[in-house]
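Key idea: predict the complex, not the pieces.
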Amino acid sequence: MRYLLRRAAFYLLTAWAAITLNFLIPRMLPGDPVRSLIARFQGRISVEATESLYILFGLDEQKSLWQQYLDYWGNLLSGNLGLSFAYFPTPVVDIIEQSLPWTLALVGLSTILSFVLGTMLGVWVGWRRGTWADGLLPVTNFLSAIPYFWIGLIAIAVFAVAWPIFPASGGFDPGLIPSATPEFIGSAIYHGLLPAFTIVISSVAGWILGMRNMMVTVSSEDYVTVAHAKGLPERRVMIGYAARNAVLPNVSGFALSLGFIVGGTLVTEMVFTYPGIGYMLFQAVGAKDYPLMQGFFLIITLSVLVANMLADIAYAVLDPRTRQEG
Amino acid sequence: MTGEPVLEIRNLSVEYGYDADAVRVLRDVNLTLHAGEVLGLAGESGCGKSTLAYAATRLLPPPGIITGGEVVFTSTRDDRRYDLLTATDDELRATRWEDTAIVFQGAMNSLNPVYRIGRQLTDAISAHRPEQSARQRRDRAAELLDMVGIPADRLRSYPHQLSGGMRQRVMIAMALALEPQLVIMDEPTTALDVVMQRQILQQLADLRTRLGFSVVFITHDVSLLIELADRIAVMYAGEIVEDATASQMYRTPRHPYTDGLLHSFPPLHGPRQELGGIPGAPPDLMSLPRGCTFAPRCRVALDRCRDERPALTATAFADREPHRRVACFQHEREAAAIPPSLTVM
Amino acid sequence: MVTPAQAPAVVTEPTAGSTRRRRGLTGNLLFFRNRKTVIGLVILGFFTVLALIGDLIAPYDPSLPSEVGLQPPSADHWLGTTLLGQDILSQILVGTRGVLFVGLLAGLLAAVLSVLVGVTAGFLGGIGDEGLSLLSNIFLVIPALPLIIIVAGLLPDAGGLTVALIIALTGWAWGARVLRAQTLSLRRRDFIEAARANGESTWRIIVFEILPNLTAVIASGFIGTVIFAILSEITLAFMGVTNISEWNWGTILFWAQSNQALALGAWWWFVPAGLCIAAVGTALTLINFGIDEFVNPRLRTTGKNAKILRARRIRARVGFTPVYRGTGKEQS
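Result:
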């Protein structure tokens, strides 16, 4: 329990740091483009909304930085992240609400799938070290050196253009209206397959490699030799003794690399014009929609923090040493 | 005390590495363990004593490889007899722990940190006795813990919640789970303080009297073996250089190396004496001398010792000590050179 | 995409002060004899040469349109042309410099930062360590790429130098973490204790005793960051966040994407740039493996032995020692 509390405190601190960073970045950088954009929307934008943008970007020079910071937090806590420029006058929060579920489903599921798949393959490759299974390593090495989005491009070229079995873009059939009907869900899954495949292919290599190396290390631990000496069945030794311990550093590695992986997967969305956070972020960057960019950074960071916490809880469940009972 | 042979190691050779740079760590080792016997295996670190135990059980990790010999196990309870070096994986799995159990060096890492003690005690039982119920297994695990003086409620503990001494006793209990005929102990008490060491060794002696298994006890501490073992084999540079009963070895060490080993520990009983020790360092296994491997450090070495390698054979006093073997050209001379303080006992 | 967590973790074996010099000579030779390292260095060397002379040997002006738009590879245009008739080979040749420049610069800056933070934290201990570790953990958890995108997006026309700076500022944390752990274990080694007992100043100990022993870790961290920097930079260019008039491989992919190269079936537009990225990334990873095997001999021997083991049909594994009665060493 102490372990989880300590981790929770760390995440709260990190969340605070990320939010403060989000507050400071636009203030440290030249603010003129934002001002000119606000000027362009003058008249179509309510006084209130203008004010919230001023708070967001620190354009109000009358107020002290501290006062701005307090106002910023006030806005944030009431769920006000300003208005989007590109989708004017939709509030940023609404756009996040629309796109977040798509990203959670695609990136979340495929990242977990990739981790599980890679870990299982890594267990197998690490256990059978010195056999032909080692031949898998150069391939994983090559795959891990390629950016996600390029694999996405190739996947589209092969499976959507040259041999059209999957749709090249979008999150669902444009003829359908988002709803909970089986037809719509089926279409969403169908559209998600190729991007999910891309994410799995490009990230699985790292997990295979990491787990394989841990298996090799753990296999030489005394308790694995003891398990062999006890005459336990091979599967029991491999899973219960070697893999069960080797997965621990892999889980903490998973938590630590989430920030990097999410960055890569967001770009995959872009390539597939998938209606999630990544694609919308791309749109926001293209349209210089600063409030939307800021909002997205915030929500991405907070999601990664939540995912990190979940990984930590999983770690605590897996490793009895983290739950000291006195 | 010597009964039928349980484990016969014949011409066992082991190398580390697979290419031209491979090191021969065991060279044609011959050793027989009899039923009910406690055999001590002594020598400096790196002499191959642990390697011998692990190679004989086929548990030596890579890059270790067995390059010759045989290790024959003969059951004293039924008429099974097999060579461990030709056994298949499945045959090995079936006989491991059932016939031969091991207590490993350093109990800190011998227990799986993520499983409870109870589970680690019962999983060997369930692998070998699938007909037993979970209840029977748990009762047996509690009984085993009780045997080594640990309360049964510790079954629900994780290894990190136990002290070093407790963990080592758990390992001993684990080794006895299937009542094996042979228990190999690799420096089982080295990491513990003296009080704990004594306590565990006493317990071990009691258990052995009750259950009657044979023991191979590996340690660098010869004085411990003198008290504990029936017979002692001393290893040097991958070979056995002397094999004798504990009392013979203590009274009249025939090999100069054994003599040096005995003099590097203060005796627990008897008059005070000077600690001798052995000058020089163990040889590099990559480039062994042509003759006797101990010759460069030996006080009594002659020219012959530097040219020829002595074989492990019966001593010149074979009529008086029939089962004793030594690998030294000078062992007759050495007998006379023993200081009177040692022969008093 | 390589994340630092997946990059091979360098484990330094104990290198006491006295053995350092000996390792220096024979060790370096070993390092360059490693097949992986050599392949990696050759590929990287090839692209470094391209980076230096790319604009001189480029057959065309990479930005100059021509009438022959969207041509597949031919004798005139080895890698074909864009929709506007620009020569793709020239774009790749000219773009190499930007890729390597940003990658190396960012890697260098991040390495300096990680050494400063990591070694200081590891050596100081106490509250200083807690604070610096907390800082690197925070930077590690905050997703770097979105942060880079936001900052680069807020800046008008971010060029190579700016991008390198931003990447370095966000990418130093992993190296710092690994270095801190290594410094911590070094600090307790005998030769450091001895230096301290001799009254050597903290500065001297760090520069002359600790840093030389961290070379491999620093090098591996540097290469890891270069990979991360190159991938980030190309991703930024591909998204069009950075200045799209500066050529690099990401810019080529940006134009390919925005001109629907995929739908047009113009594979030559996006395949070569991607392969170049993969080649550079693989080269760097191979060098890193080389460093890893150089530092950790246990990994090295398995690679060397694999062939012998296969030839003799021996499977080296834990728990069942192989028995091989073939040509062992001659009986002595």
